[in-house]
Design goal:
Blueprint: E1 7-15, H1 17-30, E2 31-33, H2 35-39, E3 45-53, H3 58-64, E4 69-77, E5 86-94, E6 97-105, H4 107-119, H5 126-129, H6 133-142, E7 145-159, E8 165-177, E9 191-192, E10 198-204, H7 210-218, H8 228-234, H9 237-247
Antiparallel strand pairs: 1-6, 1-10, 2-7, 3-4, 3-7, 4-5, 5-6, 7-8, 8-9, 8-10
């Protein structure tokens, strides 16, 4: 269980493959693979997210401009089978605190909800039972629609003790334009996103344990912005062109 899921601090670092492996050796002393990694080949599983944005790239600009109070909308999947659930996520940042609200739906129900958002048509009342009301409200208020998919391989660790800490290592970042609300992690014209290493994320509630602080000091880790959605837009030619037209920031 991700004990830091709902409200947490997040620190991101871009490290080399060599440094990532050295950090893992230390992490494994205090942590264990989460259930997804424990059951996956080489302890890495695929994460695929469908991101929403407005025609004016509102969510893109919030992150690009480093706004302290911002949010993003995405639908996350961990598999392409009809039995695999969809997770509707609203990820909010208020200064340094990150809060993620998540509601799950069956694939069939989730597709209907997404299609309703995309077409601007009423969503089936069953959506209320699925607890995606907040996601729907924010999508309508912002006039956001599906934009692109982001996928990567994740190796995730969770604490063996009561420490509310989660550490993940993400590699093989790829993206695919998805205005039609495609959800597959395979189908489509995927583009490799150059990330120059491994995206290390340290997530915790309150203060990090002393051993986490030691890792940061020993490996000289400096918190930096490594937003997967921004990297994906910037490396998708026609989307980066549109973003440049809107803000001149790409």
């Amino acid at each position: 269980m991700d004990r830091t899921l709902t409200s947490r601090f997040e620190r991101k670092y871009l490290v080399s493959l060599n440094v990532a492996e050295r950090i893992k050796h230390v992490v494994e002393i205090y942590m264990q693979h989460d259930p997804f990694s424990a059951d996956a080949v080489d302890n890495k599983y695929m994460v695929c997210s469908l991101y929403f944005d407005t025609q004016e790239f509102f969510f893109y600009s919030q992150t690009k401009n480093s706004e302290k109070n911002r949010y993003k909308l995405r639908v996350r999947t961990y598999g392409d089978a009809e039995s695999d659930q969809l997770f509707f996520e609203v990820k909010k940042r208020v200064d340094q605190i990150v809060r993620k609200d998540r509601a799950c739906a069956t694939r069939a129900e989730g597709k209907d909800i997404i299609e309703g958002i995309r077409k601007g048509s009423p969503v089936n009342s069953d959506a209320h039972a699925l607890e995606v009301d907040n996601f729907l409200r924010l999508a309508r208020e912002s006039s956001s629609v599906p934009n692109l998919r982001v996928r990567y391989m994740r190796e995730a660790f969770e604490s063996r003790t009561a420490d509310p800490v989660r550490i993940t290592f993400d590699t093989n970042l790829m993206t695919c334009p998805s205005p039609g609300a495609e959800l597959s992690s395979v189908d489509g014209d995927w583009i490799m996103v150059p990330d120059n290493g491994v995206i290390l994320e340290v997530k915790y509630s309150g203060s990090p344990p002393s051993w986490v602080k030691n890792i940061m000091e020993v490996f000289n880790l400096t918190n930096q912005s490594v937003p997967k959605y921004i990297l994906s837009v910037d490396n998708t030619p026609h989307l980066s062109h549109l973003a440049r037209q809107q803000y001149g920031t790409v």
